[in-house]
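User: Hi! Is it possible to get a structure for several chains at once, not just one? Here's what I have:
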Amino acid sequence: MGIPSSDLTSVDSRPASLGGLVDRPKLPLPGNSPFFLVHYADVGGSWEVAEEGLDAPTFLPVLQPYPIRPGAAGVRTVSADEPRSRMYARPLAKLQEQGAVVLPLDFHVDAAHLPAGVAAGPYLRETDAQGGPFYHTAWDTPRKAVRGNTATVDCDRAAYNRWRAALVTSGIVPEPRGAILEDVRARALRRLDTVRSATDIPTDMREAKTAVARSRVDAVAAAKLPTATTPKTAKKVQA
Amino acid sequence: MAVLNSPLLAADAESSIGRSFQYLPGMIRQQLAERFDVAAGGLIVSVGDVAGSGSDTVRTRRATGYGWSKAMASLASETQAIAASPVTVGVDDITIGRQGLAFSESFQHAIQDDAMLKVDDLAGYMVDSYLATLRSLLCTTGATFATNSADPAATLDVNDWIALRADFEETAGFDGRAVAVLHPVQVAHLRSSIRSETALQYPESFELYQRMQAEAGFRFTFLGIDIYASQDVSLSGGDYYGFAYQPGAIAYAVGSTAQMGDLSDANPILVPEWGIVVTRKTDGQSATKRVDANAFVGVGKLDPTLFAQFLIRSNAT
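Assistant: Yes, the chains can be modeled jointly so their relative placement is included. Here is the combined structure:
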C-alpha cells in the first residue's frame, strides 16, 4: 500500500452526490397503492378484442389492477412482525375461490414483451409523484398532463397486447368458454344497432359512427384466440 | 448608510430601507383541492363498527332462494310431492385498515408562524383529510368491480351509457337508482359524445349536460344515472376505471375510538363514529411538537347479487 500523497493536485475527484440537494421532478399526482393484476374469468367484459401490435384481431384477457391498500377491498393492516403478504391474503383467497387468475407481484415479464428500453422484471413499476410513489404497469409511462394540474399515462398497447396474448398461449390465463366471446360479439352488434338507429344526429356523423361500429363488429367477428404464432416482439416496419 | 438624493425615489428607498413585497398578515390561501364528500353524497353506506368485536372485519350475510327470488313450482298432479328447495347463502367482508396523517413543527416555527400553519391549526383540517381518504378508498374499491360495461377500446360515449343503463335494467331486482363515479376526463368524453346526439336540438338538455359545474363531486344525471367525478378514479394501462352501482354496493366500517381508554396525556380529539383519533405530543428536548391523526376505517364492496355494480373502463386518450 502506498503512502497517501500530500500533493493536492493528485486527489481524485468524483461526481458529487446530490442526494437531497436537488429536487427530482415529481408527477403532479396523488400517490397510489401497489396492485396485482387480476383476470376475472367468466364475467362479462373479461375479454376484449385488440389488434394493435398483433397480426390480426385477437381476443385478449382483460387484466384489472387489484390495489393492495389497507382498508380497501378487503386488504387489512398487519402488525409490524407479520409478513406484509398477509395484508392481502384474504382477498387473494377470495379471488382465487371465484376462479380469478391472479398474477403474483413477482411475476416476471421478459424484455421481449415490454416496450423498447424497459428492463425485464415484474409488471409493477413505480414513479415518484407529489403524493408518494405512483405505481403503474411496465407498459405505462406516466407524464405530466399538458393542461391542468394533473398527470396522465401513456400505454404501449402494442407490447401490452402481445404480452397478454402470450399469457393465453402459455396457459397462464385459460381460454374462456364460448359464451363469454359470444357476449363480446353481441355487445359489438348491439353497439352497431344503437349507432345506426340514432336518427337524431346529422347523417354524415351517423354514417361515420356506423362505419366505426361496423369495423368493430367485423374485427370481433374475425377475432380468434391467441395462438403460438401470435407475434412475441414488435414487427419491423417496412418502408 | 445609503444616500437618497432628491427627489427621493421609491425605487431607491425600497432596496435600502423598504420592502419589495409584503404578506397580508394571518392569511393563507389553500391550493385548489377536490372537496367531494362521498359520505354526504350517499355514495357509501355504513355497515357498522368493529370496536370490541375482537376482529378487524365486519361480515355481512346474504341469502337467496326464497321469497321474491323463488317462485312456487307448478305441480302436475294432486298428489305429487313438493321437492324441498335449498337456500343459498354467502358472506361479504368489510375490513378496516389504519389510515394516518401527521404534522410536526419546531417550537420556533410555532413562535414565529404568522400564516396559520401551526400544527394545532393543521389538526383542525384532519377531518377533511379523512373525507378525502374515504373518497379515495371508495374509488380504489370501485375499480375492483369485475363486470365491465363500457367499450374499453374507445373513449366513453353515449353508447356506453346506453349499454350501462341496459345492464342495470337487465339485473333482476334493480330498484331504479344508480350512481356512477367517473374520472373528470371520462365525464368530458361523455359530454363530448352527448353533444353530437340530441343535445344541440334541445337547448335545455344542452345546458343541463354541458354547463360548468363545481369540482365537488356531482356533475349531472344522464339516462337516470347520477354522475359524480373524482380525480381519485384509477388510471392504469391507459384506461380509466370508473364505476357505477346501486347505492349500498360500496360500504364502510369503522373501528370506533370511543373505548380507547385514557389518552389525556395526548390531549386527544376523538371522532368515534368515524374511527378517528387525533393525538398531540410535545418534546421539549428537541423543541418540537407534533400531531398524529389515526383513522381506523375500511371500505369494501358487497356482492353483485345484492347490488348491481359495473366497471366503466374506457380509454384515457
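Confidence is low (pLDDT under 50) at residues 235-239 of chain A. The CA atoms of residues 1 and 11 of chain A lie 16 Å apart.

User: Great, thank you!
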